[in-house]
Amino acid sequence: MERNNHLRQQVANLRQSLFDQGYVDEQFIELEELQDDATPNFVEEVVTLFYKDSARLIHSIDHSLENHPLDFAKLDNYMHQFKGSSSSIGAKKVKTECTQFMEYCSAGNVEGCKRTFKQLKREHTALKKKLEVYFQYARLAGPTETASCRPK
Predict the structure, then answer these.
(1) Would 109 disulfide with which of 4, 104, 134, 143, CB 3.0-4.6 Å?
(2) From CA 32, how far away is CA 29, in angstroms rounded?
(3) What is the DSSP letter of 145?
């Protein structure tokens, strides 16, 4: 029992750090509130789908950034999709980079797009690692009522 309480505290701390460090926003809480006994891994499943979809988008954007001249309309479309899926899981830092990329697309700024895309991929990877640890501990701790808890 004590081990389980310790695990739950670690999960709560990891979750809080996701908010404190600006990796996730209120949308992440909205997802958690949809999770219940019937779908105990709902948030993890949605995040897994996000990473599958975003891997495809990253590949498409990487490929498009190699073309000369750049097709800013196509890049903006890809990034609009990326921003939408990032928003749906509450990936705050990733969404911010998507917005910045789209601004550079509108301005026709090739270097700004490339630089921002590198930063977006760093944020995307960092969030993935943090969420993997969080979900790993959450599975170990088992079901809990923290889904409705708001971050401090």
Answers:
(1) 104
(2) 5
(3) S
Task: Tell which residue, 5, 7, 18, has the closest CA to residue 126.
Answer: 18
- Dist. CA 142–CA 150, nearest whole Å: 19
Q: Which residue has the tokens 């709560």?
A: 12
CA atoms of 105 and 100, how far apart (whole Å): 9
Query: Counting beta carbons within 10 angstroms of the beta carbon of residue 38, is it exposed (0 to 12), middle (13 to 18) or buried (19 or more)?
Result: exposed
Distance CA 147, CA 28 (A): 10
Asked whether the beta carbons of 97 and 119 are under 8 A apart, the reply is yes
Residue 47 CB: number of other CB atoms within 10 A?
A: 23
Q: What single string gives the DSSP state of each residue in 59-81?
A: HHHHHHHTSSS--HHHHHHHHHH
pLDDT per residue over 22-35, tens digit each?
Answer: 999 999 999 999 99
pLDDT digits (tens, 9 = 90+) for 55-89: 999 999 999 999 989 999 999 999 999 999 999 99
Q: Check: pTM over 0.70? Answer yes or no.
A: yes
CA distance 113 to 80: 14
